[in-house]
Amino acid sequence: TSQKSVTDIRFVCRGTFVHSTAEEALQILEDALLGVDSKGKIAFIGEGTDLQRLSESFGFSSCAVTQLGQHEFFMPGMIDTHIHAPQYSYTGTALDMPLLQWLNTYTFPVESRFQDLEFAKKVYTQVVKRTLRNGTTTACYFATIHTDASLLLGQIANDFGQRALVGKVCMDRNDSVKHYKESSEESQEETCRRFVKELLNKKYPLVKPVVTPRFAPSCTEALLAKLGEMAKNNKLHIQSHISENLEEVEWVKELFPNSESYTDIYHKCNLLTDKTIMAHGCHLSDEELVLFRETGAALSHCPNSNISLCSGVLNVRNVLNHKVKLGLGTDVAGGYSPSILDAVRRALDSSKVLTIQDPEYKTLSFEEVFRLATLGGSQALSLDERTGNFQVGKDFDALRVNVAAPGGPIDLIQNEKPQILLEKFLNLGDDRNIVEVFVAGKKVVPFSEP
Ligand code: GUN
Ligand code: FE
């Protein structure tokens, strides 16, 4: 048992806990006790722990211990490292074109509607509620170029208790859709003086701004450099897209003829830091992966999107071998599913496709992908001091899973072991199995009625 001296215990749970650590992709604690303190942090966790002794040293005799059922377990909340909140409005449709055509035909016209705050409120409430129900305790969101709607997304995530990074999108180049572009000055001013400043002023405990150049083709080098400078001076998170599709990679070479690689463009503009996450990276070279590793920048693996837009297949084993931080992303709406469980399945499928093509390729295990969905995502977003697993001192961000939830999608025969329960949940489960969601020790699902 590891513990620290805390006296004010908010609640204690007893049962099976599954999570990942640096050493073990899957660690299972059976009949364990976990205590959450009044700040929502994990005060103690231990297997076969002496309840009597703990209750005395932590003084929680007054609060009831919640006992999990036989087919239940707690796992860390899932982390969506890349999701476009406005695109939730058309998720599950419009998957018949490659990336650049898809952006011009579907994405930009829809995103341009988000200057309308009523529309934004409707869609952003839906996406926050849906992802929370699906077990996404932390989401790293792209919004649109509109500052007020982007601030509204931060407010809605805060209101529902979701941990979030929120980015106002920056784009000052190549507008295929009239008015869905900013001037360079406007993009800088709105991002720096309004979006970041106002979001920080709200002092939402779980919501942070993230500097968000859409991707290199949407930005002039001058804007990229300004955003990099601002992120550096204020130690801000950064997100963008990189090397998603081959046509995009070729276009970037034309637009930035003086750069050595796609990665080099971001690197020269100070946009690769240990608080950076770049989506996709399907077509990065090994030299580019080394630059990620050296700068501490992370990748978001978005397998549903990579398949749905026929963009490419990320070689995850190679990324992990290069020791580049990696999480999973839904990339709604390029990826059609707003669930990280889907991302887990598509990541496993993609890895198996690579093994079919090359039997030497070492397929990812479900335990490894479970780690990507939780601790990996947390590390990729530089939030692992506070989230990602059940280490004492971290915030309690967790899902209470009932694999045999009545009316749910999974049938059990008898007494399946925790590892089997987790594997079945990852492959077959859905929100019916996620009976409770906690963020920073607060129960956020089921929703409390306002
Ligand atoms: N690259 C630039 N913008 C986007 C976007 O909205 N979705 C995806 N999948 N790729 C992008
Ligand atoms: Fe994306």
Short description:
The protein contains 14 helices and 18 strands.
Could you please describe the fold and organization of this structure?
Its EC number is 3.5.4.3. GO terms for molecular function: guanine deaminase activity; zinc ion binding. Catalyzes the hydrolytic deamination of guanine, producing xanthine and ammonia. By secondary structure, the chain is an alpha/beta fold. The chain folds into two domains: 2-76 and 389-445, Urease, subunit C, domain 1; 78-380, TIM Barrel (Alpha-Beta Barrel). 37% of the residues lie in helices and 22% in strands. The protein has 14 helices and 18 strands. Strands 7, 8, 9, 10, 11, 12, 13, 14 and 15 form a nine-stranded parallel beta sheet that branches. It has a five-stranded mixed beta sheet with strand order 1-4-3-2-5. A four-stranded antiparallel beta sheet has the order 6-16-17-18, covered by helices on one side. Helix 4 (147-160) runs parallel beside helix 5, helix 5 (184-201) packs parallel to helix 6 and helix 12 packs across helix 13 (366-380). The chain is globular, with a radius of gyration of 22 Å. The mean pLDDT is 95. Bound molecules: guanine and fe (iii) ion. The site of fe (iii) ion has 6 residues, from strand 7.
Write out the distinct hetero groups bound to the structure. Answer: guanine, fe (iii) ion
pLDDT averaged over residues: 95
How many helix segments? Answer: 14
Strand count, sense and barrel status of the largest sheet are: 9 strands, parallel
CATH fold-level name of the largest domain:
TIM Barrel
Q: Number of DSSP strands? A: 18
By secondary-structure content and strand pairing, the structural class works out as: alpha/beta
Question: Which value, in Å, is the CA radius of gyration?
Answer: 22 Å
Contiguous uncertain segments of 5+ residues: none
Query: What is the CATH class of the largest domain?
Result: Alpha Beta
Q: Globular, elongated, flat, extended or rod-shaped: what is the shape? A: globular
Pfam families: Amidohydro_1 (PF01979)
Subunit structure: Homodimer.
Pathway: Purine metabolism; guanine degradation; xanthine from guanine: step 1/1
Function: Catalyzes the hydrolytic deamination of guanine, producing xanthine and ammonia.
